[in-house]
Automatic annotation (TrEMBL):
One Gene Ontology term from the biological process aspect of the record: division septum assembly
InterPro entries for this protein: G_ENGB_dom (IPR030393), GTP-bd (IPR006073), GTP-bd_ribosome_bio_YsxC (IPR019987), P-loop_NTPase (IPR027417)
PANTHER family: ENGB-TYPE G DOMAIN-CONTAINING PROTEIN (PTHR11649:SF13), MSS1/TRME-RELATED GTP-BINDING PROTEIN (PTHR11649)
Similarity field: Belongs to the TRAFAC class TrmE-Era-EngA-EngB-Septin-like GTPase superfamily. EngB GTPase family.
Cofactor(s) required, per the database record: Mg(2+)
Cell cycle keyword on record: yes
CDD domains: YihA_EngB
Name of encoding gene: engB
Pfam families linked to this entry: MMR_HSR1
Annotated ranges, domain EngB-type G: 22-197
Record protein name field: Probable GTP-binding protein EngB
Record key words, sorted: Cell cycle, Cell division, GTP-binding, Magnesium, Metal-binding, Nucleotide-binding, Septation
Task of the protein: Necessary for normal cell division and for the maintenance of normal septation.
Taxonomic classification: Bacteria, Pseudomonadati, Bacteroidota, Flavobacteriia, Flavobacteriales
GO MF annotations in UniProt: GTP binding; metal ion binding
Length: 197
């Protein structure tokens, strides 16, 4: 997919106030500092559409960006500061779970994971929550430039092993680096194909 236009539409903390359009939308979510803003900026090829900073937890809103006037990229708040609880729903802010449970336009979610890290309970719990809520999701492993190819392969293999303790199969995943422009075409082509289905 070629990006012809990408514009900020609105920020909200209530799903009821999100855009009324029926356009398909794709949500991006992950732990604070995972590289979500950088990834979004890479995808749309703009330096500053999504704000980046080292300051964790700053984006506390549902942000809609209209892409090519025919789909929404949705930037959701970073999680990871709430304590992990047995009841996943309580771990994540209500407006996030509301978004996932009520937003009919949502096609799928991309859960961002830093490729350097061991599986983290909060990510596992979040994916578990998505699974239980029957929300389709893919994984995006970020910051791939930070690992040598062998180490990346080993980390992904151990991530998959951990996932297979609770999942029947490893969800589809993408490997990206925003600083090296890795994974951009694969992700955009994937969204285009899903949109065409
Ligand atoms: P967010 O909090 O998830 O939106 O994360 P940011 O996009 O603000 O990135 C957090 C930090 O990681 C920043 O210092 C970025 O420069 C850095 N970062 C993000 N993506 C990459 C990447 O692909 N490679 C490298 N080396 N650093 C990255």
């Amino acid at each position: 997919m070629k990006i012809k236009s990408a514009e900020f539409t609105m920020s909200n903390s209530e799903v009821a106030k999100c855009p009324k359009d029926r356009l398909p939308e794709y949500a991006f979510i992950g732990r604070s500092n995972v590289g979500k803003s950088s990834l979004i900026n890479m995808l749309v090829d703009q330096k500053n559409l999504a704000k980046t900073s080292g300051r964790p937890g700053k984006t506390q809103l549902i942000n809609h960006f209209l892409i090519n006037k025919n789909w929404f990229l949705v930037d959701l708040p970073g999680y990871g500061y709430a304590r992990v609880s047995k009841k996943a729903k309580k771990t994540f802010q209500k407006f996030i779970t509301d978004y996932f449970e009520k937003r009919k336009q949502l096609v799928l979610a991309f859960v961002l994971i830093d490729c350097r890290h061991e599986p983290q309970p909060i990510d596992m719990e979040f994916m578990q929550y998505l699974g239980e809520s029957a929300i389709p999701f893919n994984i995006i492993f970020t910051k791939a430039d930070k690992l040598k190819p062998g180490a990346l392969e080993r980390n992904l293999a151990s991530y998959e092993q951990k996932m297979l303790e609770t999942w029947e199969e490893m969800p589809q995943y993408f490997i990206t680096s925003s600083s090296k422009y890795i994974g951009r075409d694969e992700l955009l082509d994937y969204v285009e194909n899903v949109n065409d289905e």
